[in-house]
Amino acid sequence: MARAVSSRAKVGYTVAAWIVALLIFFPILYTIITSLKSEQEAIAGFDLIPSFTLESFRAVQTQNDYWKPFTNSVILSLGSTLLALIVAIPAAWAMAFSPTKRTKDILMWMLSTKMMPAVAVLVPIYLIFLRTGLMDTRIGLTVMLMLINLPIVVWMLYTYFREIPGEILEAARMDGATLRDEIVHVLTPMAVPGIASTLLLNVILAWNEAFWTIQLTTTNAAPLSAFIASFSSPQGLFWAKLSAASVLAIAPILILGWFSQKQLVRGLTFGAVK
Amino acid sequence: MGRITLENVTKRFGDVEVIPPLNLDINDGEFVVFVGPSGCGKSTLLRLIAGLEDTSGGRILIDGQDATSTPPAKRGLAMVFQSYALYPHMSVRKNIAFPMRMAGVPQDEQDRRIESAAKALNLTNYLDRKPGQLSGGQRQRVAIGRAIVREPSAFLFDEPLSNLDAALRVGMRLEISELHNRLETTMIYVTHDQVEAMTMADKIVVLQAGRIEQVGSPMELYRAPRNLFVAGFIGSPRMNLIDGPAAAEYDATTIGVRPEHIAVSGTEGKWKGRIGVSEHLGSDTFFYVEDTGLAETITVRAGGDIDLHHGDTVWLSPDIAQMHRFDANGDRIA
């Protein structure tokens, strides 16, 4: 029997949920509000009603070209994600279907690299990039972002692959499938939902990555995260312009996230609930 | 052809020997059932034959060729799994076509074999559905269809009916037997259900702890079980195994009498007892007779019309000619 919930309790829960949601969303909301203010309004103090001027957006567009970092963001996030999938699918496949005694350790070790503060390897990476001429190049940054997110991609795919019953792969083997056939015709199609949510999440992570993108680029390969950072300059803080730039930077990924909510939620809770 | 020979085949998982050296001959066209309690190694043995597990020693010959290290795909065997193991993203048609696609069978030949398999298995109307839209019995038929179209030299069945409900199980049992009669291909069938073993097999292999306890036709096993384990495992209800003075009377440590080989009488007989539970099946009646002075409750099978009930005093007389005698090691005394 379903638990009886009184309508008063229902109203209470709804209000509480809205409050929590609003608290989480508030920073983004206030960024949007500020982006619609003039520079004077923005520094004047807390105010939820902007003058709805598009002046900051116009300024951002004319001072700095928006489309170049946007293009860079698209290339970097998609490129690094695809590259990560190419590396991670065989890796996760091997660990999920031919585990050894050390598989768990390897997975743990991969994850442990994410526990290390990024600054710890800044100098060596910086020097490598400098000496190999990768500094401020899209290719260098794509590889960097791929490596950063690889542990998470491997982990997510590993979890998905583990959910695929081994008997189905054995059936494929009995049916005469080679290893390649098995991956192409059976495993990958079955793992598509999992791969899709991994892809989405990784695109978002790569899109939002701000440490390496700011450290390793100047102009040529700078994505939107670096674009935002360029508005907090030594000449002073321009809150409205900074907000406008932020809104422009997060809008594409916000829209993507909105349309792929279902996939994302499934991706994030996979294995936790069945 | 489908002649399979196991020569001293062993399997170890780490330090645990699940199958000690084992020898077995399976003739072409035979329906062989591996039966035994869970954990007896019957599925492992099947997987060794399939090539899904590597042997730890010994040789597996298929039609005289050493196949011990041949990959599963190249052994020419087809397998039906307990979980059906259908490809959930493919339609029934594509599921059945998959092994042929892998083997590069021409499209028109594929279509012909799919049509004929679908007709034989009553799947014609379901060819464009996905496995998720089928019932358990239909899924199992698709799995069998996928096995048939390969035209394998032998079929391997790994407890294929245990996920089905009782009524469906009986139906599928008949269908598989009919399939065997029609195709005359070697079939190796793993089950823990001795009724399936008795009804389907040409040859039953009774396994316990990875060892073969006895190999023989269902009736050989029924009439002359080689030891106590086989005696207790084959036959339903179970054979009455009696030890103590009642057995010593027949120069045995244990005697075995099947429920159908004991006569019941309300007036006279060898062992006196009282009816505990009685099960009336219509065609037969099973009495569980207690207080006989023997260690065990004695199961007796009588006709459906017999008029005896719970609490009645009865006399039981075993049919001496049908009695099985076992020594202290549990082996049959000839």
From TrEMBL, chain A:
<feature type="transmembrane region" description="Helical">
    <location>
        <begin position="238"/>
        <end position="259"/>
    </location>
</feature>
<dbReference type="InterPro" id="IPR000515">
    <property type="entry name" value="MetI-like"/>
</dbReference>
<comment type="similarity">
    <text>Belongs to the binding-protein-dependent transport system permease family.</text>
</comment>
<feature type="domain" description="ABC transmembrane type-1">
    <location>
        <begin position="70"/>
        <end position="260"/>
    </location>
</feature>
<protein>
    <submittedName>
        <fullName>Carbohydrate ABC transporter permease</fullName>
    </submittedName>
</protein>
<keyword id="KW-0472">Membrane</keyword>
<feature type="transmembrane region" description="Helical">
    <location>
        <begin position="106"/>
        <end position="129"/>
    </location>
</feature>
<keyword id="KW-0813">Transport</keyword>
<keyword id="KW-0812">Transmembrane</keyword>
<keyword id="KW-1133">Transmembrane helix</keyword>
<dbReference type="InterPro" id="IPR050901">
    <property type="entry name" value="BP-dep_ABC_trans_perm"/>
</dbReference>
<dbReference type="InterPro" id="IPR035906">
    <property type="entry name" value="MetI-like_sf"/>
</dbReference>
<feature type="transmembrane region" description="Helical">
    <location>
        <begin position="74"/>
        <end position="94"/>
    </location>
</feature>
<feature type="transmembrane region" description="Helical">
    <location>
        <begin position="141"/>
        <end position="161"/>
    </location>
</feature>
<keyword id="KW-1003">Cell membrane</keyword>
<dbReference type="Pfam" id="PF00528">
    <property type="entry name" value="BPD_transp_1"/>
</dbReference>
<feature type="transmembrane region" description="Helical">
    <location>
        <begin position="182"/>
        <end position="207"/>
    </location>
</feature>
<feature type="transmembrane region" description="Helical">
    <location>
        <begin position="12"/>
        <end position="33"/>
    </location>
</feature>
From TrEMBL, chain B:
<dbReference type="InterPro" id="IPR017871">
    <property type="entry name" value="ABC_transporter-like_CS"/>
</dbReference>
<comment type="similarity">
    <text>Belongs to the ABC transporter superfamily.</text>
</comment>
<dbReference type="Pfam" id="PF08402">
    <property type="entry name" value="TOBE_2"/>
</dbReference>
<dbReference type="InterPro" id="IPR015855">
    <property type="entry name" value="ABC_transpr_MalK-like"/>
</dbReference>
<keyword id="KW-0067">ATP-binding</keyword>
<dbReference type="InterPro" id="IPR012340">
    <property type="entry name" value="NA-bd_OB-fold"/>
</dbReference>
<dbReference type="GO" id="GO:0005524">
    <property type="term" value="F:ATP binding"/>
</dbReference>
<feature type="domain" description="ABC transporter">
    <location>
        <begin position="4"/>
        <end position="234"/>
    </location>
</feature>
<dbReference type="InterPro" id="IPR047641">
    <property type="entry name" value="ABC_transpr_MalK/UgpC-like"/>
</dbReference>
<dbReference type="InterPro" id="IPR008995">
    <property type="entry name" value="Mo/tungstate-bd_C_term_dom"/>
</dbReference>
<dbReference type="InterPro" id="IPR003593">
    <property type="entry name" value="AAA+_ATPase"/>
</dbReference>
<dbReference type="InterPro" id="IPR013611">
    <property type="entry name" value="Transp-assoc_OB_typ2"/>
</dbReference>
<dbReference type="InterPro" id="IPR003439">
    <property type="entry name" value="ABC_transporter-like_ATP-bd"/>
</dbReference>
<keyword id="KW-0547">Nucleotide-binding</keyword>
<dbReference type="Pfam" id="PF00005">
    <property type="entry name" value="ABC_tran"/>
</dbReference>
<keyword id="KW-0813">Transport</keyword>
<dbReference type="InterPro" id="IPR027417">
    <property type="entry name" value="P-loop_NTPase"/>
</dbReference>
<protein>
    <submittedName>
        <fullName>ABC transporter ATP-binding protein</fullName>
    </submittedName>
</protein>
